[in-house]
Amino acid sequence: MTAGGGGHPDEKQRGPVVLRRGLRNEATTTDQRLLDSRGPSDWVHTDPWRVLRIQAEFVEGFGMLAELPRAVTVFGSARTARDHIEYAQGRALGTALAEAGYAVITGGGPGVMEAANKGCSEAGGLSVGLGIELPFEQGLNDWVDLGINFRYFFARKTMFVKYSQAFVCLPGGFGTLDELFEALTLVQTKKVTKFPVVLLGTEYWGGLYDWIAKTVLGSGKIGEKDLALLHLTDDVDDAVKVVHEAYRAWEDAH
């Protein structure tokens, strides 16, 4: 929920807790308090209790998503305006994935995430949002049918990987890049079953792809098979085709 039709959020979520109006102005987040080793030594006594909260996030996430049908995670910028072409593309992608029989998982926020959730929901698909406690860009968008809010990034990231058959990345910032390269690393090192990672938007992603191909591969830091983990395209139907072919191959192997 946002104030002024897409501006700053009216509410903040601290895990499953919703904070509104004056209560939403907090100086730090749960993740920040966990990772910040500075300050009083009371962390020695509080960190063991945090383990229980972390455990609860995994239990709740696994429990909620255990019956999820085949799904695709869509990443992209929370800052994308609703009248931007990338928003329209995200919405079209959500629609196409739903029509192909996939649930759509996003970070649950605004921008591209909202677009993908909206397209999926409008097409009758299952629209999932995995939110995160942040000092900004907070609150699940209105097009999320099934949502959960996390305090810790690492718990949330596990859910993205565990319950997706593919990642599709639209133009985004550090968060999108973080998820992109973590997924590639997990696939490259065979920590997860191989699934495709699609970069949707050649104008935006082309420079990065060329740098990986010419500099990273060219200097021997990765192999040809590693580069093949990425699929660069402008076409929504092509992205869905890549996802579907990889899923059918996975089904045949299992």
- Beta-strand portion reads 15-25%
Roughly how many Å is the radius of gyration? 19 Å
Number of strands: 9
Main β-sheet, spatial strand arrangement: 6-5-4-3-7-8-9
Total count of helical runs of at least 4 residues: 9
Main sheet specs: 7 strands, parallel
What is the succession of H and E elements? EEHHEHEHEEHEHEHHEH
The end-to-end distance, rounded to whole angstroms, is: 41 Å
Mean residue pLDDT? 88
What class would the helix/strand composition place it in?
alpha/beta
> Judging from the principal axes of the Cα atoms, what is the shape?
globular
- Helix fraction bin: 40-55%
Which stretches of 5+ consecutive residues score pLDDT under 50?
1-6
Question: What's the structural blueprint in terms of helices and strands?
Answer:
Layout: E1 11-14, E2 17-20, H1 30-35, H2 43-65, E3 71-75, H3 85-99, E4 103-106, H4 112-122, E5 127-132, E6 146-150, H5 153-162, E7 166-169, H6 174-188, E8 197-200, H7 202-216, H8 224-227, E9 230-233, H9 236-253
Helix pairs in contact: 3-4, 3-9
Brief summary of the model shown:
It contains nine helices and nine strands.
Describe what this molecule looks like in 3D:
With 254 residues, the protein is α/β, with parallel strands linked by helices. It is built from nine helices and nine strands. Helix 3 (85-99) packs parallel to helix 4 and helix 3 (85-99) packs parallel to helix 9. The radius of gyration is 19 Å and the shape is globular.
